[in-house]
Amino acid sequence: MNRARIVAVASKEWREILRDRLFFALAFVVPAVLMLLFGFGLSLDVEHIPLAVVDHDRTPLSREYAHRFIDSRYFAFRGELDDERHADAPLTDGRLRVVLVIGPRFEAQLLAGRPAEVQTLIDGTFPFRAQTAKGYVAAISAAFSAETLARVISQQRGEPEARVREALPPVRLDVRYLYNQSMRSVWSIAPKLLMVIMMISPPFLTALGIVREKESGSFFNIYASPASRAEFLIGKLAPYVAISTLNALILWALAVGLFGTPFKGDALFFLVMTVLYVTCTTGIGLLVSVAVRTQVAAMIGTAILTIVPAGLYSGGLIPGSSLSSVARLIAHAMPGMYFADIAMGSFLKGVGLATLWPDVLALALYAVGLFTAGYLLFHKRVRA
181: exposed, middle or buried (C-beta count within 10 Å: 0-12, 13-18, 19+)? Predict the structure, then answer.
């Protein structure tokens, strides 16, 4: 291959990109805007759930139990209700998500060593949020129950409450969260957003940039040039790979600087993997541009091949282990899943090539396969 011809094709393509200032601006603005919109708007943290309390007992122990929820950061107290029948309207219009109903004789039953009645009304419109709220209620109730039981036993036996509390649970569960100790969902979302956006933006840029030249007719000048197919493809893709790599670095800076996501891995390794990944996704745009002749068709084809796989089949929103067998097969056929593992490993786990080499190998094979397919499908002569 002749390096001078590759540079000439790349230089010509770069001038075409710069000539369209709107296209050039959108190439950098759209990925950053998507990162900001999804980074701030997409959160899996379920906190500040609107809560109301119905206390039929109104005793010190029932108030103490209610304040366990009122003082928790997981709930936002919206006041007390006289009766649970008054909860229908605020639950229906969304002003409340959880209503805690403390039954009569709550304190008397606990002090007598009998189970006390508590009902929880939860808005089940969104199952994930409802299950999380149920888990919060169960955890707070379990902690209150253990403390109350230790207090009762301490009073009956005359032993120190601290000693009873230590001996009370037969199994003590000690949970330690690794890699994301504070359990902040944005730390998990930001690296995957980088994968999703770089799965969508480079193919769109490449497909639209090349097909636009087809529509204008300037693309066919290559048929009279001495550049070979391989030289033309490398020179044509190089500017888009460079733009996408710069976009990925901007997104990395937003993830680390704005959203506070820790980066524990090797920066050079991650940079090389990012270039490899955007080469893969740029190759998808190349295949689309070879197959279609209009920008509208290029947008539709690119959207089908990138947006849905990036969101559903790459681990961005749904864990790979939760996918069906057919969905897992589709996921393994797209590069997003492999780069998602590399991004999560580099950001949160601090692992490198020694651990992530299967994903690196898959991306390398994917890049070679896409370039080979583009090489075979592209012809320097117009087919009738």
Answer: exposed
